[in-house]
Design brief:
Strand content: 35-45%
Largest sheet: 7 strands, mixed
Structural class: alpha+beta
Order of helices and strands: EEEEHEEEEEHH
Shape: globular
Number of helices: 3
Number of strands: 9
Length: 163
């Protein structure tokens, strides 16, 4: 299947860990900037970002993880979770990677925007202002709607219910 040239695409990396105490947990980030401030429900994301048509999606996922988390992606086996079209029309491709890192060690990248809009004042905001390990149930509430499918795909893969 060939994608349209004007289709926006993003790639991301969903870290996960498993353990007797909590079971499956995924690492997600709260989106930074004034629009997301004070919101929890549907205000979190898999570390991801857009890439150009000539960039390899996996390379983009690695780059975006490092930009948003502030450290290189851990080593390990990348498990493909496929792609999903978002309500915005963007197509997101995600891989899962088993790793256990400290969310407090994040040093998020930043972006600039005029804020308040129309003020002429340009401010800098973190791309993601915090990260947290979440159970799939908590992640389902926190993640933006179009990304919840990746947690479900990961659960199915880990329980033998899907490839």
């Amino acid at each position: 299947m060939t994608a349209k040239k004007n289709t926006r695409r993003s790639a991301g990396l969903l870290l996960f860990r498993t353990g007797a105490e909590h079971g499956l947990e995924v690492l997600i980030g709260h989106m930074g900037g004034p629009f997301w401030e004070g919101r929890e429900q549907a205000a979190w994301s898999v570390p991801k970002g857009e890439y150009a048509p000539d960039e390899e999606p996996r390379a983009a996922a690695r780059r975006e993880f490092e930009e948003e988390f502030g450290h290189p992606a851990p080593d390990g086996e990348w498990l493909p979770l496929g792609e999903a079209r978002q309500p915005s029309g963007k197509t997101v491709t995600v891989w899962a990677l088993r790793a256990d890192i400290d969310p407090a060690s994040a040093v998020p990248g930043t972006f600039t925007m005029e804020w308040p809009r129309g003020s002429g004042v340009v401010r800098e905001f973190p791309e993601m202002d915090r990260f947290a390990w979440c159970t799939p149930q908590v992640a389902a509430d926190r993640l933006v709607k179009g990304q919840r499918v990746f947690v479900e795909r990961l659960r199915a893969r880990l329980t033998g219910g899907g490839g």
